[in-house]
Amino acid sequence: MIPALEHIPSGCAAAGIMNKSGVCISGDAIMDMMSVMHSRSNGLGGGFAAYGIYPEIPDYYCLHIMFDNDSAKREVDSLIEENFITERQEKIPTRNIKEIKDPPLLWRYFVLPKPDKLVAKNMDANDFVVRLVMLINTRIPGCYVNSSGKNMGVFKGVGYPEDIGRFFMIEKYSAYIWTAHGRFPTNTPGWWAGAHPFSILDWTVVHNGEISSYGINKRFLETYGYECVLLTDTEVIAYTFDLLVRKHGLPLEIACNVVASKFWKDIELMSEEERKLHTALRMTYGNLLLNGPFAIIVATNNYMMGLNDRIKLRPLVYGKKGDFSYIASEESSIRKIENNLEEVHSLVAGKPLKVEVNKDVCA
Amino acid sequence: MSVLDKLLPEFFIKVDRELCIKCGQCVKNCGFSALMQDKDKNVKPIHEKCVACQRCMYVCPTKAIQVINFPGTQKNNEYWKPEYIKNIKKQANSGGILLTAAGNDKPYPVIFDRLLLDACQVTNPSIDPLREPMEIISYLGEKPIDISIEFRDNKYVLKDKLKPNIKLNSPIIFAAMSYGAISLNAHKALAKAARECGILMNTGEGGLHRDLYEYSDNIIVQVASGRFGVSPEYLKRSAAIEIKVGQGAKPGIGGHLPGYKVDDEVSSTRMIPKGTDALSPAPHHDIYSIEDLAQLIASLKEATDYSKPVGVKIAAVHNIAAIASGVARADADYIVIDGFRGGTGAAPTMIRDHIGIPIELAIAAVDDRLRKEKIRNKVSIVAAGGIRHAADMAKALALGADFVTIGTVALIAMGCTLCQKCYTGNCSWGIATQRPDLVERLNPDEASKKLVNLIRGWSLELKEIMGALGINAIESLVGNRERLRALELSRETLDVLGVKPAGR
Ligand code: SF4
Ligand code: SF4
Questions:
Q1: How many CB pairs under 8 A join A and B?
Q2: For chain B, how many structural domains are there in total?
Q3: Is residue A151 within 8 Å of A62, Cβ to Cβ?
Q4: Beta strands B484-486; B500-501: pairing state
Q5: Boundary of a domain, candidates B62, B96, B130
Q6: Which of A58, A203, A278, B11 has the least C-beta neighbours within 10 A?
Q7: Statement: the pTM of the whole predicted model exceeds 0.80
Q8: Helix %, strand %, coil % for chain B, to 5?
Q9: What are A118-131's pLDDT values in tens digits?
Q10: Tens digit of each residue's pLDDT (9 = 90 or more) over B98-154
Q11: Which residue segment(s) compose the domain that B39 sits in?
C-alpha cells in the first residue's frame, strides 16, 4: 500500500557495473560495491537491476510484481490473463533472513501481449506494456510492477542493499549490467515499491538526490500519459527517458540535454544550428529539466549511463578496467572490487557518460 | 445648490501656517485645482476637490501640507459603509453610473497572501544566485509537442521550424495601457524600459504613436473591439499581436475614453476625430463565437505572414478554464488571463468590484484544463491583474503561469499614488492625462529608469526565491505547485489550486 500521499526526498548510494562483451557476472560484485557505501543508506530501501538474467526466455517481457495480498494478486492475474500470453509465471525465489521483515508477495510473469489486443488498441507491444503497468500501478490497490523489460529484472525492497541482495539471492543471478541503490530517505515510510531502481520496460534508474522540480516534471509527464504513482522523484526520471528516447525518438545524448539542459549562457555561444536545437529543446521540454541535485545511473539492455545535474551537486565516479565499466557514488566502492583501474574520474556536471555493450550482445 | 446636492469631502487638506513658506508649489502641482493662493499668497484648500493624489505632499519643500481623511465622522456602521452612502447620494444627484479607476480595492480574501513558497533544507541544497547561473529567460508563444532531430554533418540538427516565439529576459510584461488613457510620456517610458530590460510592453487598445515605432521589437500591439489605430503598419510594428476580448477590471463591458482626453495626437494615433469619445463596444462586432475568434486570429496571422505570436486577452470569469481551452484551440499562441483585481483607466464601480474571479484560481484552473486536454504546449499563459510584488509573481508562476503582467505596479513606479481618478484626465503625476501641463511633468527617461530598476529588482528577487527553492531555471518553477503550500484555505480552494495545505 502507498503509505501516504507524499513525495519522499532521499539521499543515497548508487552503483553500476557493466561488461561490454556481455560476460555475465554474479551479483556478488555489486553487493561488494554497495557494502562499502553502507553509511549512505539507512536501511529504508535497497535494490538491484540486473540485465541478461533470463537468457533462456529473452524475448518475453518479464513483469516483476509485488503484492500486498492475495486479492491484489488475483486481480492482477486476471488482468494479465486477459491481455497477455503467459509463457511462465512463478514466485520470485527469496531466502528468509531476519533483517528483512514482512516482505510482500513477489512474483514474476514472462508474457507477450496478445496480438488481437494490440490490433484492437492499435498499439505497439511496448506501449501496450507501459499502459498495462500504469493500469496495475494506479488502479489496483496493493500491488506494484517493479520491472517490465525483457531479459532483465528489478529486485528491491525495504532494508539495507546488502540485506535485500541476500534476501533475493542475487548472487545466484548472472548479469552483464548490474545497478544498485541504497536509500536514505529523509521521510520514512518503509515502503517496498518506494525503493530504487525505478523501471519501465527495460529502463532502470537509480538515483542519489532530490528533484526540486518534481512537481512540474510529474505534471508534464501526465500530459503525455504517464501516471506517477510512487510519489518518489526517481519515478519521473524513468518515464522521462522512456518518453524522450523511446517515444519521441531523441538520441540519448539529446535527452540528457533535456534533463540536464545547457545553460542559456552556453547556448548563446553555440553555432547557429546548435543554438536553434538547444533553444528548441528548452522551449519544448523545459518542464522535464531535472532541477536539483542528482546523480543517476540509467540502464537499458544496451547500455549503462551516468549523469549528474548541471551544477554537479552530487558525486558520481566512473572507472574502467578491460571490458568492465563501473559507476558509483564513491570511488572506494569501485576500488573495493577493482583496484587496478585503467581509468578513473568524476563525471562532469550535466555531461552524460554512456558505456554501451557490443552490438552482438543484444539483438 | 441645495443641501441635498452636497457631498461631504472625502479628504481634508491641512496647511500648517507656521511651516508654509508660501512658495505656491502645491498650488501649481495640484492637477485637481483643489488648492488656491489668496492675494497674500496664503494657501487655501478646497477640500471637496481633493482626491488624495498626494502630489502636494511630495512637492512641498517644508512638508507644510498634509492630506488626511475627512475627520468629520458619520455614525459607525459596519454594513452601510460611508462609501455606499456617498455613492447613493452621488447617484441621486446625477442619475448616472458610478465611475472609478485602477483595480478592485474591496476586501475580498487575497489568495496570494495565503500561499507560501517552499525552501530547501539539508536534503537538497539551495542555490546561491550570486554564484551560480539562475535562468529566468522565457519564450512567449506556441511550443511544439515534440521535436524531431536529424544527424547531419556529424552533428544533431533540428528538423522542423518552430512557431514564432518572443524571448523575454524576465517573465514580466508591462500590462496593456492605452495611449489616451495614459500619456505619451508614460508610453515612451514603458517602451524604453521594455527594450532595456529585454521584455515587452503592451500598447493597449489605443494604437501606437509614431514615436514608439523604434521600439517595435518590444511591443505587443492590441486589437480591441474599437479597432483604434489598427492598420497594416500597426500590426507590422510589433513583436506580437493581442486580441483584447476582456479586461479583468470590467469583464463583459467595453471601454470609454472621454472626448476631453482625445487631443490631436491621440486622435491621429487612434484614427478618430479629435474631441470625440472613443467608445470600445463590449463585444467585437465580428466576434460572436469562438469560430469568429479563430477567424480573426487567422486573419491577423495571415496579415503578418505568420511571423509573430497572436495572443488573446480574456477576463477571469467563472467558466475561464473552458473558455481558455477554446481560445487555445482557436489557435491563439498565448492567453492573457486578467483577474478581478486588474486595473483600468475607467470602469463602472459596480462592474469593477463585483465581476470576475481571482487570478490565482483562474491560472490554476486554466493550467489544469489545458494539461488535461494535452494542449498546454499550444499556448503561453500570462497571468494579469493584481500582481503586487515578486513573490506574487513567483506564486503565479508556480500555479502555472508562464508570465505575469504588471500595470498598476508600473504606474506606481512612475509616480502614481493610486488615487483612482485616472478617468478624470487630471492625473497630477502626468500619467493618466493628456493635459500638456501635466504630461510634461513626467520625464520619459527618468520614468523609464524607475521601471528598469523595478524590473531589475523583481528579477533579482525571483532569482533569490528560485535559489531558495533549489532550482536554477524558470522552467522548473512554472507549474510546480509542489513547492507551494496553503495557509487556511478551504478544501475546495485547495482542490482548484492543486496545492497542499501547509504542514503536509
Ligand atoms: S488633489 Fe492632490 S495635489 Fe491637490 S490637494 Fe489633493 S492631494 Fe494635494
Ligand atoms: S495614474 Fe494618476 S490619476 Fe490614475 S491612480 Fe495613478 S495617480 Fe491617480
A1: 125
A2: 2
A3: yes
A4: parallel
A5: B96
A6: A58
A7: yes
A8: 35, 15, 45
A9: 999 999 999 999 99
A10: 999 999 999 999 999 999 999 999 878 899 999 999 999 999 999 999 999 999 888
A11: 3-96
